[in-house]
Amino acid sequence: MDDDLIGEDRPPSRRPVAVALALAVVAGGFGLTQRLTAADPIPPRPPPVESGAATPSRPLTAPSAPAAAAAPAPGSGPAPWAGLARHRDAGVDFALHRLVRADGRSYRLGRGDQALDMHDAAAGPVLLVQSRGSTLLEQLRRDGSRFVLETFQGDFRLPQGIAVDPAGERVAYAVTTGTSRGPFGLVVQDLRTGAVLASRTTRRPYGVRDWLPSGVVLTVAAESGGLPFRWRPGSGAPDQVTPAPGDGKRLFLLAGAPRREEWLVTGPRCTGLVRALGRRPARWYCQVPLAEPAAWSPSGQLVVARGDRPVLRVLDLRSGRTSRLGIPPRVFVSQVTWRSADTVLVSLRTLSGGRGAVLSCRLEQPCRRLELGAPGPAADLVLSL
Q1: Could you count the other beta carbons within 10 Å of the beta carbon of residue 21?
Q2: Which residues pair with 273 in a beta bridge?
Q3: Where are the alpha helices (DSSP H) in 30-150?
Q4: What is the spatial distance between Cα 376 and Cα 71, in angstroms, rounded to a whole number?
Q5: Is residue 238 a contact partner of residue 230, using CB atoms and an 8 Å limit?
Q6: Terminal-residue alpha carbon distance, the chain
Q7: What are the C-alpha distances in Å from 248 to residues 34, 243, 275?
Q8: Can you give the pLDDT at residue 181?
């Protein structure tokens, strides 16, 4: 028995879709879906502590009119990005506190709600929302309803990252469970019905980082080395992407390839390219150290990542050369994502003062500040991944 990975995967449910939908329909609308499979090795969620904290399907405020111009940023002096050209772009999906913009429509969550994470999906964006003392994993359906997939109460089963599969039909997340069989867990749910398709208790503190065609990409927190793993739900235990280096150095996941089974792992000075699962890096890039946040381009040839200074570097995997994006100094980069083959969206904030912005940066060109119509400081803005 594997000492680090215990429990059993639950294979995807093969019951007729009609049964799943019948269990999912509550009061003529969408509801919290009952689990359709046998007893879950991960303990069931507790009942909501506060009435209304996890309403199965809460209507959103009707699509709002375009938001008013942003309020003056707090703090003294101009923002680091003050000299950048501005560009209006209403096509970027994002969430800022209660405001969520997706598919060209703007909505507001309930009072006191704040969006913490946002991912694209087939039937509407999937969000992690902090709401009245609990954390909700939910989907904003295209009919304007909020379909709650899971409720995390207080310190129970805290989510450790979420990711949506490439088809936009399933969501994977890691949790802290505190069970006798393992202190942590991995879960996959069907976004249409809420049914649990796979669950697994683990001893390693996994965090879900991404979901690629090759499987769910996991990182290991609070462990020396933090090596990445790849997990195919329902097919067994997670597989280690690359062996630990024998010289005692630490390697961490930088990014996974969007279409191939390749990964980049990074250490104190160099970044390694792993071309096959379980193999050691076949190539090293040591021009500058790279770190999170990072994203692999759709073409598979470029990777954008934090560089040796608080700037972003673009690594060309073919030549090994790196180039800098036009990010202003004295900022903290919180998110990066590729908008197209040569354009990166960057969410950043000031080191103090609570100011934030989203930049659109094309390779070898100056960055532009996007005007998204988001009211107030954008330090807590999250981009849809």
Answers
A1: 13
A2: 264, 283
A3: none
A4: 5
A5: yes
A6: 37
A7: 46, 12, 22
A8: 65
- Cα(53)–Cα(136) distance, integer angstroms: 9
Q: Return phi, psi of residue 162, to 5°.
A: -135, 155
Instruction: Determine the residue type at 135.
Output: T
The residue behind tokens 């913490």 is 116
Q: What angle do CA 23, 28, 32 make, to 5 degrees?
A: 45
Long-range contacts of 265-273 (CB under 8 A, 24+ apart): 265/227, 265/228, 265/241, 266/290, 266/291, 266/305, 271/315, 272/242, 273/317
Coil, strand or helix: which one is 69?
coil
How many CB atoms within 10 Å of residue 98?
17
The answer to pTM > 0.85 is no
Q: What residues in the chain have per-residue pLDDT under 50?
A: 1-74, 224
Query: Cis peptide leading into 293, omega within 30 of 0?
Result: yes
Q: What is the DSSP letter of 275?
A: -
Query: Please, which residues have CB within 8 angstroms of residue 318's CB and are 6 or more apart in sequence?
Result: 301
- Position 33 scores a pLDDT of 31
CA 360 to chain centre: 20
Distance CA 383, CA 127 (A): 11
Specify the pLDDT at position 174.
Answer: 93
User: What is the per-residue pLDDT for 244?
Assistant: 83
| φ, ψ for residue 110, nearest 5 deg | -70, 165
CA count, 13 A, side-chain hemisphere, 315: 28
pLDDT of residue 76: 59
Query: What is the DSSP code string of 236-270?
Result: SS-EESSPPPTTS---EEEEE-SSSS-EEEE-SS-
Please report, as a single letter, which amino acid is at residue 214: S
Place of tokens 């934090």: 306
Contact 146, 58 (CB under 8 A): yes
Inter-residue contact 312 to 306 (CB < 8 Å): yes
